[in-house]
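for the recovery benchmark. tokens below, seq after
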């Protein structure tokens, strides 16, 4: 668009309409004023929407600040702000469903569950596991009619993350034993989300993932024969279990993990873009 054209456009007389064969002034506004008016209205709508969203995020942010969860408390002030936003956004995007009579999923519980997902993904660009829209929370272990046994958690391809609240709490009550149900199930969700074709598909760095896959394959082989080592045997079922179990140790026993298997630790560190052993949460 040439400068002359623009100049001509803005010099046009006030907008008119034709009514009953007569020309009537639509309003005493020039095209420039009309454009400005549209811009102001648009900005007001955007501002109002932003304000409404901030109001919806606020209770979860305040609850997170009140709880001072250990991972959150270790972050810098700038990182804490990012973490707060991600936790609140995660909650807004999910439906939390309580299973069991008289049991409810409260705001503090939602914050803790969301924080475990954000802890895992904090080194990456924001990822909210968009395939998994519903979190089913049981007060305690629940009976699976498919597997005919009690479960403490699972991730279901139909879009559910299922947790036993008692086991979730136990996971965080001891922060150094390498058992953490929340991180374990979120790790399953992350692993699957990366291969589900949706708006978050393929968010893990392919090279880092390849290094991880190669190393984990050989580690699983080795562990099957030796039946010993740092990673518990549950990890040897398949590559999904191996990843989820390693995630638990990565955050809860990071120093031991790094010392016992530096290659595997570095591969996970690169994959998740965090290095908890060095207290670096965004590489
Ligand atoms: Zn698992």
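predicted aa per position
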């Amino acid at each position: 668009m040439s400068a002359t054209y623009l100049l001509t456009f803005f010099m046009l007389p006030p907008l008119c309409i034709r009514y009953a064969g007569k020309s009537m002034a639509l309003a005493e506004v020039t095209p420039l004023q009309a454009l400005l008016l549209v811009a102001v209205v648009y900005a007001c709508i955007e501002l109002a929407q932003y304000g409404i969203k901030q109001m919806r995020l606020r209770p979860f942010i305040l609850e997170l600040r009140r709880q001072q969860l250990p991972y959150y408390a270790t972050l810098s002030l700038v990182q804490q702000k990012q973490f707060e936003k991600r936790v609140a956004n995660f909650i807004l995007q999910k439906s939390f469903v309580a299973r069991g009579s008289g049991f409810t999923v409260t705001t503090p519980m939602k914050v803790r569950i969301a924080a475990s997902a954000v802890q895992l993904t904090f080194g990456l660009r924001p990822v909210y596991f968009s395939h998994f829209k519903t979190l089913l929370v049981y007060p305690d272990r629940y009976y699976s009619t498919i597997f005919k046994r009690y479960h403490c958690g699972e991730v279901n391809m139909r879009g559910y993350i299922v947790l036993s609240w008692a086991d979730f709490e136990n996971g965080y009550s001891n922060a150094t034993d390498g058992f953490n149900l929340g991180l374990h199930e979120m790790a399953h969700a992350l692993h699957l989300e990366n291969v589900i074709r949706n708006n978050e598909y393929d968010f893990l760095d392919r090279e880092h993932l390849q290094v991880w896959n190669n190393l984990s394959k050989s580690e699983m082989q080795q562990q099957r024969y030796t039946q010993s080592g740092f990673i518990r045997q549950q990890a040897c079922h398949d590559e999904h279990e191996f990843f989820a179990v390693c995630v638990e140790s990565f955050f809860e026993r990071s120093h031991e993990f790094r010392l016992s298997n530096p290659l595997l630790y570095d591969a996970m560190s690169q994959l998740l873009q965090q290095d908890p052993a060095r207290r670096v949460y965004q590489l």
